Amino acid sequence: MKNIIRGAIFKVGDDINTDYILPAKFLDLYEPADLAPHAFEGMGLEFMKRMRGRTIVVGGENFGMGSAREQAPNALKGAGIQAVIAKSFARIFYRNTINVGIAAIESPDAVEAVAEGEEMTIDLETGTIRVRDKEFSFSPFPQPVIDLLSAGGMVPLLRRRLNLF
């Protein structure tokens, strides 16, 4: 991941729980590529179809509520999602999302202003979201978090730093 994320928006509503993102019947899987075909399966096939080709998920309040399992953000990672923007996050989901290498950004104003399918640009260093002619701000990520996201998550970052390829 680079410091700039560009892509099309997949928009969902409030209280999207981890079972909506990845149903519990897939918890025996862990690798993002194995989980990807099931991302948002808990919300129905139409959601899975709408998400294809999108790289940014935009959600409402309490995104990622529910269990603390990492499989939900790993499913998003496998599906090509690079960022999740929400009005608010369940705290453990927020941390797990960053740990697997996906930017998690709270920006209620951006959530309200954007529509499904629009193109968005996110600058992680400056804390800027751009869509159409509008610009929104969020707290920029500190360099250690940008490094973690750029490496693809906590495990790849540690492997790189410990020379464990």
List strands and helices in order, with pairings.
Elements: E1 4-11, H1 18-21, H2 32-35, H3 45-51, E2 56-59, H4 71-78, E3 83-86, H5 91-99, E4 103-106, H6 108-113, E5 119-123, E6 128-131, E7 134-137, H7 143-151, H8 154-161
Parallel strand pairs: 1-2, 2-3, 3-4
Antiparallel strand pairs: 1-5, 5-6, 6-7
Task: Write structural notes for this entry.
- The radius of gyration is 15 Å and the shape is globular.
- It is an alpha/beta fold and 165 residues long.
- The protein has a single domain, classed as Aconitase, domain 4 (Alpha-Beta Barrel), CATH 3.20.19.
- A 7-stranded mixed beta sheet has the order 4-3-2-1-5-6-7.
Query: How are the strands of the biggest sheet laid out side by side?
Result: 4-3-2-1-5-6-7
> How many separate helices?
8
How many domains, as an integer?
Answer: 1
CATH fold-level name? Aconitase, domain 4
Radius of gyration: 15 Å
CATH architecture: Alpha-Beta Barrel
Q: Which H/E pattern describes the elements?
A: EHHHEHEHEHEEEHH
- SSE class: alpha/beta
Unreliable runs = none
- Helical amount among residues, as a percent range? 25-40%
Mean pLDDT: 93
Strand content: 15-25%
Q: What is the CATH first-level class name?
A: Alpha Beta
Care to count the β-strands?
A: 7
CATH superfamily: Aconitase, domain 4
Question: Roughly how many Å apart are the termini?
Answer: 18 Å
Q: How does the overall form come out from the CA principal axes?
A: globular
Describe the largest sheet: 7 strands, mixed
